[in-house]
Amino acid sequence: MSELRVNKIIPKDGVPSASSGTRNGGGILQVVYAQKKDTQSITGSNQRTDIDISGLSFVIQPSSSSNLILLQGTIHHYVDANQQMGFRLKANNSTITDALGNADSGGTSKQQFASGYGNQNNADSWVVASTSFTYLHAPATTSAITYKVCLNMATNDGTSYINRSERDYDGTYYDYRCVSTFTGMEVTGT
Predict the structure, then answer these.
(1) What three-state secondary structure class fits 37?
(2) CA distance linking residue 177 with residue 96, whole number of Å
(3) What's the CA gap between 82 and 75, in Å, rounded?
(4) For the chain, which terminal residue's Cβ has fewer other Cβ atoms within 10 angstroms, N or C?
């Protein structure tokens, strides 16, 4: 059996120029995947506190400091009435600030990477929503990086859930339990 080992993959026409996007890369060098199959409950008393989503983390070590890490994930959730769930990406326990929305001019808006909408009586208690994301990180290091997904709640009200509905009833086909995923891919840089 043959084996091919490389430390850089470049498209035949080269890596796209920086003018064609914010960040550009070539081929995929390694893939790391994490999944969460169990459930997690989050109470509103954790308002504005970043809470790790257990199981949605991994370690990846770039082979070059010019390489990028493509982060992709899907989080299944139920957000309690009059509540909103925000998501943040962290590298080595620090928020990736480039992956946050801009605050309003007064700076009072909570900066998030992605958001799970609140129920506000728009969906029944057996509904599970999902939030998907993609982000291309430029860590500029060859040291191992621990990536994770965190969430926080907008208010002190209610309880919200990962991978399940609020009702979570065992006797119907409506109350699904889901799998949330988080993937990291090292992409050759310029």
Answers:
(1) coil
(2) 29
(3) 20
(4) N
The CA-CA-CA angle for residues 126, 87, 189, to 5°, reads: 130
Residue range 65-124, pLDDT digits in tens: 999 999 999 999 988 766 778 889 999 999 998 888 876 655 656 778 777 766 555 667
Distances (CA, A) of 159 to 2, 82, 85, 167: 53, 11, 11, 11
CA gap 153, 47 in Å, rounded: 5
Q: Does domain 31-187 have CATH number 2.40.50.140?
A: no
Residue 118: its pLDDT value, please?
61
* Cα-based torsion angle of the residue sequence 8, 58, 143, 3 in order, rounded to the nearest 10 degrees: -30
Q: What's the start-to-end Cα distance of the chain, in Å?
A: 32
For 20, 61, 71, the CA distances from 58, given in Å and listed in that order, are 30, 10, 11
